[in-house]
Design brief:
It is a single chain. This protein is an alpha/beta fold and 655 residues long. It has 3 domains: 11-114, Chitobiase/beta-hexosaminidase domain 2-like (Chitobiase, domain 2, 2-Layer Sandwich), CATH 3.30.379; 120-463, Glycosidases (TIM Barrel, Alpha-Beta Barrel), CATH 3.20.20.80; 487-529 and 567-643, Alpha-glucuronidase, C-terminal domain (Alpha-d-glucuronidase, C-terminal Domain), CATH 3.90.1330. It is built from 19 helices and 19 strands. It has helices at residues 33-43, 88-104, 153-166, 180-183, 188-203, 216-219, 231-247, 273-284, 314-319, 350-353, 380-387, 400-406, 435-446, 452-463, 468-489, 545-552, 562-565, 580-604, 611-643; strands spanning 17-18, 24-26, 44-45, 57-61, 72-76, 81-85, 112-114, 120-124, 144-145, 148-149, 170-172, 207-212, 253-256, 290-294, 330-335, 359-364, 415-419, 526-527, 568-569. The chain has an 8-stranded parallel barrel with strand order 8-11-12-13-14-15-16-17. Strand 14, helix 9 (314-319) and strand 15 (330-335) form a beta-alpha-beta unit. Helix 14 crosses helix 15. The longest helix has 33 residues, at 611-643. It is globular, with a radius of gyration of 25 Å. It starts with 16 loop residues before the first strand and ends in a 12-residue tail after the last helix.
Length: 655
């Protein structure tokens, strides 16, 4: 199948930077050098190759151990810029950085040096071979259609450009829930169609990974078992890996979801996850391949009647006893929180607790529980909170961004990953403003010290032509968007009050009596899950001593996480001075009012925007406003009926 793509939004690569005099000079020629040359001509106005004497940009390979394989230096000379790096891949990143610097117009001190904070900066696609995307909100897959490869290589190249420009260097191209058809992607006939994708990605310094089904030896190989201690299963994987690397020599490795939400895994055979992960790791190790093993593991067959059974505890309980037992080329992929990408949940207690295991932090760019790219939700402030979270383990570094490296025995095997939010929609992300999350993830993964505001300023400068007042308006919308969504959807750390299966729109009891174990336990007296050691599930004890004390106590538990850790009365007094029930009423009314303001502010920007972006966001804001009203009315009515306590401001709450 070969599909001609519609005209694509160039997103943050649409602007050209002007250099004078024109020209560039590359001292090196290798597999990425041609990409650097193409990108120079694409991103810089009137650029033509020239000799070194007349160049505006000189690319130079150097030997500087401090830069590693990807770091770069940009020098400003009297008549040129000089980009230095140890590899051509580093020069490519430096070129994109120069483009950002020239477009943004900000003050940068030269020489400008940048080395990535995290070695693995990865996107996971939850794309299925039929072209659908699990939790996808921007159209069908860019890789597959109707159980065939889409083979739109021009589109793949455009996507690789977008990712490389932000610093992404790793990409998994199929869903972690590996269905039967996707299980066969590891076979030769499919690998030959994957190879052109891998080749294009490699030109931009990006390694391709495949999600694999743990039971592939049975599904694909026809074996009777996938037991990690059975030699037949190990031999099947070794032969399969040899085929993969024969066809795709630059292949990165496997991504695995096992023993979770119905997916097969080593628990089937009474084995632990180190057994399963290490079997795959040993098959792929001779080729320097990596196994990324997701920690999203829990028993989904829970019972709302049993309050001692707590899904939040499952991942810690599964992996803490395995710390240090995984092979060096295994990396544990840990979600930012213990549940499932909620609007508000605590940071996973595995960070800081795992001290001898390679680990990467997993986020979700696609907005499954945060508005599904119909609502504005700038995710960077949430992500930064997790990265900067102080686990309060002593001695040594305690922030998550540092622990990713410090607690990984192989420093090159630490990093940050996120579930991708792109599809076939012409603007890539469905909602134009959701591009900021894709761009922002890459930039934050490269430089953990960049603030949410800095990254947003970059994206706005690269994407729109706004007046200072226009920038101020858009920045206010984006920087308040997360609080706005939270205010009308998820009070004080309670999540999952959404319609089951598709997870869009309010349904307070949607999962309350469900096997998935996401209960809010609201009754006539109060609301919240009791997770304390003294009177609940004991989840609080999974944290360091200082964090345990903070979360265990009502007096010190943060208001924004109160109901995640404690069941409290509706009359409980928050630090704001409001009762819990009045705060629920106030925030839900305020959230709707703020979305109404966004609509007015977006209208004021019309003259400064291109017609497509204006119309796209206007339509999404109309949907967000109607949805926010529904959230407000259902949540407020539900808790009024439970508590019997009226709104002290006398606003309309339905009885």
């Amino acid at each position: 199948m070969n599909i001609i793509t519609q005209k694509r939004d160039k997103a943050w690569l649409k602007k050209k930077a002007v250099l004078s005099p024109p020209g560039y000079y590359l001292e090196v020629q290798d597999e990425i050098a041609g990409t650097v040359a193409r990108e120079m001509e694409e991103l810089f106005a009137d650029m033509v190759p020239g000799d070194q004497a007349q160049s505006s940009v000189i690319f130079r390979r150097i030997e500087d151990p401090g830069l590693g394989e990807e770091g770069y230096i940009i020098n400003r000379c009297p008549d040129c810029y000089e980009i230095q790096g140890n590899t051509t891949r580093a020069l490519l990143y430096g070129m994109y950085a120069l483009h950002r610097i020239l477009i943004d117009g900000g003050t940068v001190r030269f020489p400008f040096c940048s080395v990535p904070a995290q070695r693995i900066r990865m996107l996971d696609h939850w794309d299925n071979f039929d072209g659908s995307i699990e939790r996808g909100y921007a159209g069908d897959s860019i890789f597959y259609s109707a159980n065939q490869f889409r083979n739109d290589f021009a589109l793949i190249r455009e996507y690789a450009r977008l990712l490389a420009s932000t610093g992404i260097n790793t990409l998994a191209v199929n869903n972690v829930n590996v269905h039967e058809k996707e299980a066969f992607l590891v076979m030769e006939r499919c690998l030959r169609e994957i190879k052109p994708i891998a080749d294009i990605l490699a030109e931009y310094g990006i390694k391709l990974f495949l999600s694999v089904n743990y039971a592939a030896p049975i599904i694909v190989g026809g074996l009777a078992t996938a037991d990690p201690r059975d030699p037949a299963a190990g031999n099947w994987w070794r032969k399969t890996v040899e085929t993969i690397y024969r066809i795709i020599p630059q292949f990165g490795g496997f991504l695995v979801k096992a023993d979770s939400e119905g997916e097969p895994g080593p628990f089937t055979y009474g084995r632990n996850h180190d057994d399963g992960a290490n079997m795959l790791a040993r098959a792929i190790a001779p080729f320097d391949g990596i196994v990324i093993w997701r920690c999203f593991v829990y028993n989904c067959h829970q019972d709302w009647r049993n309050r001692s059974n707590d899904r939040a505890k499952a991942q810690y309980e599964t992996y803490i006893g395995l710390d240090g037992k995984f092979d060096d080329n295994v990396i544990l992929q840990i979600k930012n929180g213990p549940m499932d990408f909620q609007v508000r949940e605590p940071v996973s207690p595995l960070f800081g607790a795992l001290k001898h295991t390679n680990q990467i932090l997993e986020y979700q760019i696609t907005q499954e529980y945060t508005g599904q790219q119909k609502h504005i939700f700038y995710l960077l402030p949430m992500w930064k909170t997790v990265l900067n979270y102080d686990t309060k383990y002593q001695p040594g570094p305690a922030a998550v961004c540092d622990l990713l490296r410090e607690n990984s025995p192989v420093k090159a095997h630490s990093g940050i990953v996120a579930v991708a939010n792109v599809g076939m929609d012409s603007n890539w992300t469905g909602h134009k403003l959701a591009q900021a999350n894709l761009y922002g993830f890459g930039r934050m993964a490269w430089d953990n010290q960049l603030s949410s505001e800095q990254i947003l300023d970059e994206w706005m400068a690269l994407t729109f032509d706004l007046t200072p007042n226009g920038k101020k308006i858009l920045k206010d919308i984006m920087m308040t968007s997360a609080d706005t969504y939270e205010s009308y959807s998820a009070p004080n750390g309670i999540g999952f009050m959404v319609k089951p299966v598709h997870h869009y729109g309010p349904d307070v009891d949607g999962y309350e009596y469900d096997r998935w174990g996401t209960y809010h336990y609201a009754d006539r007296d109060g609301i919240g899950a009791e997770r304390t050691l003294s009177d609940g599930t004991g989840y609080t004890r999974q944290y360091s001593d200082r964090r345990f004390e903070e979360y265990e106590s009502l007096e010190s538990c943060p208001d924004e996480l109160l109901l995640f850790f404690h069941h409290v009365p509706y009359t409980y007094l928050l630090r704001s001075g409001k009762t819990l029930i009045q705060s629920i009423y106030d925030t839900h009314f305020a959230g709707v009012e703020r979305v109404s303001r966004y609509m007015q502010e977006w209208e004021a920007l019309k003259a400064e925007l291109d017609p497509d972006s204006y119309a796209n966001v206007k339509q999404r804001l109309e949907e967000q406003y109607e949805s926010a009203k529904e959230w407000r009315d259902q949540i407020n009515t539900y808790f009024y009926r439970k508590s019997g306590i009226p709104d002290e401001k006398g606003r309309t709450i339905y009885r």
